[in-house]
């Protein structure tokens, strides 16, 4: 079996392979996880601060070997499964097959062993960074007092990673000669105390005699009109969602204050999702693809308008998480025109075909539509014009500061 772990698991895998997580030799199982939570140790009593876990799908059994891949399909390691829990938690030792070859500042990555060799026995003052360094004088003074090499360890995980490494390189220019910069893909832990303890462990692995934790970043979001936004319409076929979405697109283009991308459900079906069926699995995949493109648009400050049926609540929530994970905003608009009205309109004759059994798994007839309970705006087009519906959406965008 081959499997691509999620970004957090991949980051932990890289640190396991590099030796930064010594004495761990693989992902933790149930017993180790329990004692880490309860006592801050592994099951054998070895001090360890934080969970390092991997989840795999069903069908994996003890003794199986699973090849772990990077997002581009490059084999990174083989996991020998020792246990697989019902929730997917999978433990076992790993054997490295390669190292990550891509990514920003790959040339700066070094293993703890390589850094210790470069230090040549000299003491090091490690500074772990999750944000820019405010006071370099304290670092320089401490290093001078210890007669130590300064080792900047930007904890470059996720979207902020490249900017953090650039901040470390700028700091390097203002610190004493010989200061080293080594990016470490350490994902943050939710509890500050645990995160700090894990940072100290990693710093020690890289040869630190002393460790300073740089300040946590202060995130001040930009004004709404500068942030990425996804306006996601959901509703039954014939509800009016595509017509409202197109009207919104046209109005925003007329205003000219935002870059707009429009992702209509039918158009996406013919292009991005060509070949998919209308099974639940393929419907979910179609919505995930729309969500991915929309999130990439919003990541760079654009405004994306999506208008699929999106009948399932869990998949809509996945899209919301995709968008918010890149620092953008998500606005869910439920076009709540009743089934009876949608069927009365039936411009494409789809409901009639579904009632006749010619279209299987048709939303609202032979397949469910899960009405959202988290919609930011609800519109019923039964008794209002499309122009009025578009105005309601525009008013919401103006009220939220997303357009001016």
Question: Could you describe the 3D structure shown?
Answer:
It is an enzyme of class 2 (transferase). Residues 227-380 form the APS kinase domain. Keywords: ATP-binding, Kinase, Nucleotide-binding, Nucleotidyltransferase, Phosphoprotein, Transferase. Catalyzes the synthesis of activated sulfate. Pathway: Sulfur metabolism; hydrogen sulfide biosynthesis; sulfite from sulfate: step 2/3. It is a single chain. Helix 4 (136-146) links the parallel strand 7 and strand 8 (149-154). The protein has three domains: 2-96, Sulfate adenylyltransferase (Roll), CATH 3.10.400.10; 106-214, 3-Layer(aba) Sandwich (Rossmann fold), CATH 3.40.50.620; 224-400, P-loop containing nucleotide triphosphate hydrolases (Rossmann fold, 3-Layer(aba) Sandwich). It is built from 13 helices and 15 strands. Helices cover 37% and strands 17% of the residues. The longest helix is centred in the last third of the chain and has 20 residues, at 280-299. It is α/β, with parallel strands linked by helices and 404 residues long. The strands form three sheets. Strands 1, 2, 3, 4, 5 and 6 form a six-stranded mixed β-sheet that branches. The protein has a five-stranded parallel β-sheet with strand order 12-13-11-14-15, sandwiched between helices. Helix 7 packs across helix 13 (386-399) and helix 9 (280-299) packs parallel to helix 10. The protein is globular, with a radius of gyration of 26 Å. The model has no long low-confidence stretch (mean pLDDT 92). The protein has helices at residues 7-18, 30-39, 112-119, 136-146, 161-174, 192-205, 241-255, 265-270, 280-299, 313-325, 339-345, 350-355, 386-399; strands at residues 2-3, 26-27, 65-69, 75-80, 83-84, 90-96, 124-129, 149-154, 180-181, 208-213, 229-234, 260-264, 303-307, 329-335, 377-379.
């Amino acid at each position: 079996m081959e499997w691509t772990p999620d970004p957090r698991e991949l980051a932990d895998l890289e640190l396991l392979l590099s030796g930064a997580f010594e004495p761990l030799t693989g992902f933790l199982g149930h017993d180790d996880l329990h004692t880490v939570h309860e006592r801050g140790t592994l099951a054998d009593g070895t001090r360890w601060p934080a969970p390092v876990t991997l989840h795999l799908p069903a069908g994996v059994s003890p003794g199986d070997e699973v090849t772990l891949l990077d997002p581009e399909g490059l084999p990174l390691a083989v996991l020998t499964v020792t246990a697989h829990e019902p929730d997917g938690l999978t433990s076992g030792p790993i054997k490295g097959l390669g190292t990550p070859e891509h990514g920003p500042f790959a040339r700066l990555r070094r293993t703890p062993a390589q850094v210790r060799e470069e230090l040549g026995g000299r003491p090091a003052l490690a500074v772990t960074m999750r944000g820019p360094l405010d006071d370099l004088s304290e670092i320089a003074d401490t290093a001078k007092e210890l007669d130590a090499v300064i080792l900047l360890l930007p904890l470059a995980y996720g979207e902020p990673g490249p900017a953090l490494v650039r901040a470390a390189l700028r700091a390097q220019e203002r610190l004493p000669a010989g200061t080293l910069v080594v990016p470490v893909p350490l994902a943050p832990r939710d509890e500050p105390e645990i995160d700090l303890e894990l940072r100290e462990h990693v710093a020690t692995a890289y040869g630190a005699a002393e460790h300073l934790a740089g300040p946590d970043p202060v995130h001040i979001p930009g004004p709404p009109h500068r942030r990425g936004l996804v306006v996601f319409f959901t509703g039954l076929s014939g509800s009016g969602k595509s017509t409202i979405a197109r009207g919104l697109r046209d109005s925003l283009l007329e205003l000219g204050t935002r870059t707009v991308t429009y992702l209509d459900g039918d158009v996406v079906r013919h292009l991005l999702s060509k070949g998919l069926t209308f099974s639940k699995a393929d419907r979910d995949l179609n919505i995930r693809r729309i969500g991915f493109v929309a999130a990439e648009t919003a990541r760079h400050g654009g405004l994306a308008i999506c208008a699929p049926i999106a009948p399932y609540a869990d998949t809509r929530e996945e899209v919301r998480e995709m968008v918010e994970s890149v620092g953008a905003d998500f606005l869910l608009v439920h076009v709540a025109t009743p089934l009876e009205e949608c069927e009365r309109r039936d411009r494409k004759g789809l409901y009639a075909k579904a009632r006749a059994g010619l279209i299987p798994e048709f939303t609202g007839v032979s397949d469910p539509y899960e009405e959202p309970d988290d919609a930011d705006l609800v519109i019923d087009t039964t008794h209002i014009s499309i122009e009025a519906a578009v105005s309601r959406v525009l008013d919401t965008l103006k009220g939220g500061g997303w357009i001016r």
